[in-house]
Design a protein that fits this description.
Elements lengths: L15 E2 L13 H17 L6 E7 L5 H14 L4 E5 L7 H4 L7 H7 L3 H14 L4 E2 L4 E2 L4 E2 L5 E2 L5 E5 L14 E6 L1 H13 L6 H29 L6 E4 L24 H11 L1
Helix pairs in contact: 1-2, 4-7, 6-8, 7-8
Length: 280
């Protein structure tokens, strides 16, 4: 196992940290989680080439804990003297008017309209891949304020590592850029979180319950069905190191890293079952 690195806030020592990075600065730890992080660090060390930047993507369904996991991985790399640049797909959102142009609950819009892929490629991934002498921008948009960001360009070092997290990062437009991809599978936990959201404020009358469930169903379906499209068409877990139960606070992470995909793991089925139970 890699040497333990003292806990610090993930942005205190990073070469660069983008807007949109909102991971948990004090994640729950376990021996299993530490073991998986150590294995991934060892894999990175084996695959990196001297004098060439290395691009890592942390993929997974929305809510899987990608940013937190990437921050933990960044801390361990920094502890080994690696220069790390952190960024996230959340820093490359389109404005809300573009994201919702097919409708605020559209799954198609969630997949195709959420992110400014041209800006991500042109301002970060392509110049980072070119290496030393290039400059990159790690953020162009702040989603909470729905406003563009004028971020200061950063010079790329010859041995820098880009640690990038987000949904849909293995889509065809981005797949070619990654030297290593880790896919976090936490569908069961995300299902339960969504169920808790629906159940937390159920109305008192049956007719209001029906309306409440249908409204939440439309909201959740945007994300669940949009993600289902990505999982079915791209099959991201098949192409990556896969970590099961990535953000499960009770179980941590398994000691081993598995590369198989749970074909029956559908993020939206838990909500559909709840909807059917309440409406019947």
């Amino acid at each position: 196992m890699a040497e333990h690195v003292a806990a610090v806030h993930p942005f205190q020592t990073l070469l660069d940290a983008a807007a949109g990075l909102d991971g948990n600065p004090r994640p729950i730890t376990s021996p299993q989680r530490e073991a998986v992080l150590a294995q991934i660090v060892e894999t990175i060390a084996r695959r990196r080439l001297s004098g060439r930047p290395f691009l890592i993507a942390i993929d997974g369904i929305d809510g899987a804990g990608k940013t937190t996991f990437a921050d933990e991985l960044a801390q361990r790399l920094l502890g080994l003297g690696v220069r790390v640049v952190r960024s996230t797909v959340d820093s490359f959102h389109h404005p809300r008017t573009v994201r919702h142009r097919r409708g605020a609950t559209s799954p198609v819009g969630f997949y195709f309209d959420s992110h400014d892929l041209d800006a991500l490629r042109d301002r970060l991934l392509v110049p980072f891949r070119r290496g030393a002498g290039s400059s990159v921008v790690t953020a162009v948009f702040d989603e909470p304020t729905d406003a563009a960001i004028d971020a200061e360009p950063r010079a790329v070092g010859a041995d820098d590592v880009l640690l990038f997290d987000g949904i849909f990062v293995q889509r065809p437009e981005l797949r070619e850029f990654w030297d290593l991809v880790v896919f976090l599978d936490a569908a069961q936990r995300v299902n339960l979180q969504r169920l808790e959201l629906v159940l937390s404020d159920l109305p008192a009358t049956p007719i209001d319950i029906v309306g409440h469930v249908l409204e939440w169903g439309a909201r959740i379906d945007r994300y669940a069905s949009g993600m289902r499209y990505y999982l079915d068409v791209v099959d991201p877990a098949q192409r990556a190191i896969q970590v099961m139960g990535a953000a499960d606070p009770s179980a941590g992470l398994p000691a081993g890293i598995t590369s198989h995909r749970l074909a029956s793991d559908r993020p939206h089925l838990g909500f559909v079952a709840l909807q059917q139970r309440l409406v019947q």
